[in-house]
Design brief:
283 residues; alpha/beta; TIM Barrel; two-stranded antiparallel sheet; 10 strands; 43% helix; globular
């Protein structure tokens, strides 16, 4: 099934627009993992328990490649196990890898993330141009998805993404225009494309323009919670039906407690986030 269609169904089934980010740092794990001899195995155990706790309150999970690679030799294998675990619990999976390179290397990245890891979707960087994006879009024409970096949540994103390419357009808006052109590679029966956009929750005013430009695109919205964004600022990221976006939070869910109740605390944090977003949207 088309990835965007799968995402719509997951949101409707869970009544949730929440994406739980898996950004595990060994040193921040609950006390019971302190001193573990196998850091990769400890992170997998932690990730598995988080997934089991939040699966009823989120539509998907987003595993950040960097935090798994930081584990060393077992990091990539741990990420693969984590993706398989989440999929086994019926969750859609996103690997936040911000991948891209020239064409033949992009093909290798796509094969790695969609093939070996079996991720449902990934994040990609479009700055090398259309030919570097096409290997990923080929998978969108099947059953996978991509979220193209457009306006990221970090404060210094303005250094480049806000640069004017013309009197009326920023670089972010130029990328949005290309994403609209690429929509046909993954247009589903629900009216959304599997070629989506990353738009940070910390920039709600910019999101209004980008939402008007990208009507068929799902937004992956990082920046909720620890980065300062809250539910009240999210309405402009969604369409009139309360669809078209998923909101990601990592630290505020993963580390809601450092004690033995960490999984229960994560569940409560995800549920609270779900309720706050739904209330803000009036759905």
């Amino acid at each position: 099934m088309n990835f965007a269609d799968q995402l719509v169904k997951a949101i409707e089934k869970k009544d949730s627009r929440v994406c739980v980010g898996l950004d595990p740092v060994f040193e921040k794990l609950p006390l019971e993992y302190a001193g573990a001899s196998d850091r990769a195995e400890a992170v997998f155990s932690f990730s598995k328990r988080i997934i089991d706790a939040v699966k009823g309150d989120c539509a998907c999970v987003k595993a950040n490649l960097g935090f798994y690679l930081a584990l060393g030799d077992g990091g990539f294998a741990t990420l693969r196990k984590t993706i398989a675990c989440a999929k086994g619990e019926g969750l859609l999976t996103i690997v936040d890898c911000k991948a891209n390179d020239i064409g033949n290397t992009a093909e290798a990245y796509a094969k790695s993330f969609f093939g070996f890891l079996n991720a449902d979707a990934i994040t990609i960087n479009p700055l090398l141009g259309s030919d570097s994006v096409m290997p990923f879009l080929d998978y969108c024409s099947r059953d996978r998805g991509v979220f193209v970096l457009v306006k990221t949540s970090n404060a210094s994103s303005k250094d480049f993404q806000d640069l004017k390419t013309s009197p009326r357009k920023t670089l972010s808006e130029e990328i949005a225009s290309k994403i609209v052109e690429w929509a046909e590679y993954g247009l589903g029966s629900e009216g959304y494309s599997s070629v989506g956009a990353v738009v940070g929750a910390t920039f709600p005013e910019e999101a209004k323009k980008l939402r008007r430009a990208m009507k068929k695109q799902f937004f992956l919205v990082p920046g909720y919670g620890a980065q300062g964004a809250d539910a009240k600022s999210l309405k402009s990221f969604f369409d009139d039906e309360g669809l078209g976006a998923i909101v990601s939070a990592s630290r505020s869910v993963l580390y809601a407690s450092g004690g033995k109740d960490f999984a229960e605390a994560a569940d409560k944090a995800a549920e609270k986030m779900k309720d706050e977003i739904n209330s803000a949207l009036g759905v």
